[in-house]
Amino acid sequence: MITSPRLEKITAANLDAALAVQVRPDQAHLVSPVVHSLAEAYVYPGVAWPRLIMDGERIVGFLMAFFDIDFRNDGTDHRSGLWRLNIVAGEQGRGYGRYAVQQVAAEIRRRGGTRLTTTWHPGPDGPEAFYLGLGFRPTGETSGDQTVGELDLN
Hints:
It is built from 4 helices and 7 strands. It is an alpha+beta fold. The protein is globular, with a radius of gyration of 15 Å.
């Protein structure tokens, strides 16, 4: 059960702990590791928003949001949303994923956005049920081999 969740910036002091965040082994093919996300955050500093998910002093996960990405690469469709969500293997099923999505939604609203976009790997071992349960709806698009879903924030 969540007791005192918060998001925390990645710093030199917590970098090694952030890099140690790992999902269950059977989920590793579904989400990039934190090191990959932090490399992307370095390359896209104005877009990427990496954060640790903390419960008290415990790191329970990692998220990375994105803001104002040109989704179609043609200047016609700018979106914000959840880029990565890695909940520590032993901390899953306790509400931390829901908390993370709520925090990203709040940040998008704070920045004036009205929808939260994310992607997920389809299939029985993927997180589709989690996202659908939060109210995301598939858009009919794909991004690579992933389903694109959106959550209306109005």
